[in-house]
Design a protein that fits this description.
Belongs to the short-chain dehydrogenases/reductases (SDR) family. The protein is of the alpha/beta class. The chain has helices spanning about 10-25, 40-45, 60-75, 95-125, 145-165, 185, 215-225, 240-255, 260-265, and strands spanning about 5, 25-30, 50-55, 80, 85-90, 125-130, 170-175, 190, 235. It has a single domain (about 5-260), classed as Rossmann fold (3-Layer(aba) Sandwich). The chain is built from nine helices and nine strands. Strand 6, helix 5 (about 145-165) and strand 7 (about 170-175) form a beta-alpha-beta unit.
Length: about 270
C-alpha cells in the first residue's frame, strides 16, 4: 500500500487521482480549500482518506498542513502538487490583482509546497514529488500568458530542484498533459478582449471541452503508475496533442537556433576588436 498527499483535490484531475487511489486501497491525504467537498468520499473510505483545508497561496498554511499530514500518517510516499487555476486574458487587459493571484497559485504556491515538502521527504529517506505542469510549459497560446509564465517557471524550478534533491532519494516528476476534458477550462476566469485586440489572434472562441483529446481518468492512471514505478522520468508528456505540440515546438526552437552558431560565438570576442 502506498501513502499519498494530493493538493487541489476538490475537482478535475486532483479529484480523479484521489478516487483512483482510494479504489486501489491506498491511503490519501487530500488537501483543498473546502474539505466538505470530499465528504461523500470520506464516508466511503473512512480509514483511507484524510482531508485538510489548504489554500496554496498561504505559505504558513502549507507548512502547517504538511507537518500535520506527515505526523498523522508517519510516512508519505508520493506528494502530488496539483492545485492550480487558469485565466484567459490578453496580457494588457489583466489587472495587477489578477497577475498576483494567478502567479501565487500556479507558480509561487508550487514552489513553496515543494520547498516545505523536501525536508519531510529527506527525513524519511526519500519519496516522490509529482508536480503538475502542462504542454503549456513548452508552448504558448494567445490570451493565456499568465498560465504559460507560471508553467515555464515551474519547469525551470523543478528541473533545478531535481538535481539538488536526488542525492536524498527524492524523485521528481513534471507531468505535462495536453488538453484534458476536465473542469479546468470551465472554471477558468475569462476577461473580455478589449477593443484593440478584437479580431486578432487572442480573440478566439473557447475550445469546447468535449472535443479535447485527453481523458481525466486516463491521465490520472498514467500519473499514478509513473509515480510508483521504479525509475520515473523527470518529464511525463501525456495525451496525443501534448506529445505532438511539444515535439513540434522543440524541433522548431532548435531549427531557429542552430543557424545562430557563428553569431553566438562572435559575441565571445571583445568589442570593438
Amino acid at each position: 500500500m502506498t501513502t499519498w498527499l494530493v493538493t487541489g483535490a476538490s475537482r478535475g484531475i486532483g479529484r480523479e487521482i484521489v478516487e483512483q487511489l482510494l479504489t486501489r486501497g491506498d491511503t490519501v491525504a487530500a488537501t483543498l480549500r473546502r474539505p466538505e467537498q470530499l465528504a461523500e468520499l470520506g464516508e466511503r473510505y473512512p480509514d483511507q482518506l484524510h482531508t485538510y483545508m489548504l489554500d496554496v497561496t498561504d505559505t504558513p498554511q502549507i507548512e502547517s498542513v504538511l507537518d500535520k499530514a506527515f505526523t498523522a500518517l508517519g510516512r508519505i510516499d508520493v506528494l502530488v502538487s496539483n492545485a492550480g487555476s487558469g485565466i484567459f486574458a490578453v496580457a494588457e487587459d489583466l489587472t495587477d490583482a489578477q497577475i498576483e493571484q494567478s502567479l501565487a497559485t500556479n507558480l509561487t504556491g508550487s514552489i513553496q509546497f515543494a520547498r516545505r515538502a523536501v525536508p519531510h521527504l529527506r527525513a524519511q529517506g526519500g519519496g516522490t514529488l509529482v508536480q503538475m505542469s502542462s504542454m503549456g510549459g513548452h508552448i504558448t497560446f494567445p490570451a493565456f500568458s499568465l498560465y504559460h509564465a507560471a508553467k515555464w517557471g515551474v519547469e525551470g524550478f523543478f528541473q533545478t530542484l531535481a538535481t539538488e534533491i536526488a542525492p536524498f532519494g527524492i524523485r521528481t516528476v513534471l507531468v505535462e498533459p495536453g488538453m484534458v476534458r476536465s473542469t479546468f477550462f470551465d472554471s477558468a476566469e475569462r476577461v473580455a478582449v478589449s477593443e484593440p485586440y478584437r479580431g486578432g489572434p487572442a480573440d478566439l472562441a473557447p475550445v469546447p471541452v468535449e472535443t479535447m483529446p485527453g481523458s481525466p481518468s486516463g491521465l490520472a492512471h498514467a500519473i499514478i503508475e509513473t509515480a510508483v514505478s521504479a525509475d520515473p522520468p523527470l518529464r511525463l508528456l501525456l495525451n496525443s496533442d501534448g506529445y505532438a505540440n511539444v515535439i513540434e515546438a522543440l524541433e522548431q526552437r532548435l531549427a531557429d537556433l542552430r543557424p545562430q552558431r557563428e553569431s553566438a560565438a562572435a559575441a565571445d570576442a571583445e568589442y570593438p576588436a
